[in-house]
Amino acid sequence: MLQQLKRRGCNLLLVGSVPDSVLSCASRKFFGDPHERRFRVVVLTGTSRTTVDERVPMYGTHEERTTVITHLTELADCEVPSDHVDSSVPELSNAVSSSITSFETDDGLQSGQLRVGVDSLESLFERYDPEAVQRFLGIVTGRIRGADGMGHFIFPRDYDHDLVSELAPLFDGVVEYRIDGEGQERWHFPHRDLQSPWLPL
């Protein structure tokens, strides 16, 4: 299923009330193998606990292929290109779109080359009207799919939270995390009424 999603571009919602270490592990996986050619957009929205080191695999080797966008947070000593967005959600979506455009060539990106990670949606919902955040998600997820990329959006709420249920239709899949040993994940595909068993991270 994931291979099919990669080929046509996809967006995943990552949920679960779990420690940062679990979400960092998940984020590294979705940003992709550091030894393969990837173009990464890291969007940090108000999560002071977040560092690029924890989320992106070996980013220092490929600075020209990684862009960091910060909003509602500051990132000190960042070695990769970064863009701080001070004001609104529309400005944030414009910054993400511009970063994706900067990586595109005349021939376009290959399927799965573009990787976008947003950490976390919780900060946006705390600051802005839910409708504004959902408009942001509609624009950004559409832009990612248009580039045949993969986007993952961290939202550290339980899977059965009302807001998770509202957001699920915007995504191609919802990945639920829990602590059991080293951590486990369970995939939900709301458009197909499918659910995986619990799998090791």
Which key features would you list for this structure?
34% helix, globular, Rossmann fold, alpha/beta, 10 strands, 201 residues
Q: How would you characterize the overall build of this protein?
A:
The protein has helices spanning 2-8, 20-31, 52-55, 89-103, 121-127, 130-146, 162-167, and strands at residues 10-15, 39-45, 66-71, 82-85, 114-119, 150-155, 173-178, 184-189, 194-195, 199-200. It has 201 residues and is of the alpha/beta class. It has one domain (2-200): P-loop containing nucleotide triphosphate hydrolases (Rossmann fold), CATH 3.40.50.300. Strands 1, 2, 3, 4, 5, 6, 7, 8, 9 and 10 form a 10-stranded mixed sheet that branches. α3 (52-55) links the parallel β2 (39-45) and β3. α4 (89-103) runs parallel beside α6 (130-146). The longest helix has 17 residues, at 130-146. The chain is globular.
Q: What is the fold's blueprint, element by element?
A:
Layout: H1 2-8, E1 10-15, H2 20-31, E2 39-45, H3 52-55, E3 66-71, E4 82-85, H4 89-103, E5 114-119, H5 121-127, H6 130-146, E6 150-155, H7 162-167, E7 173-178, E8 184-189, E9 194-195, E10 199-200
Parallel strand pairs: 1-6, 1-7, 2-3, 2-5, 3-4, 5-6
Antiparallel strand pairs: 7-8, 8-9, 8-10
Helix pairs in contact: 4-6
What is the name of the CATH class?
Alpha Beta
In DSSP terms (H or I, runs of 4 or more residues), the helix count works out at 7
Overall 3D form: globular
Percentage of residues in helical conformation: 25-40%
Number of strands: 10
Quote the distance from N terminus to C terminus: 17 Å
In a few lines, what is going on in this structure?
The chain is α/β, with parallel strands linked by helices and 201 residues long. It has 7 helices and 10 strands.
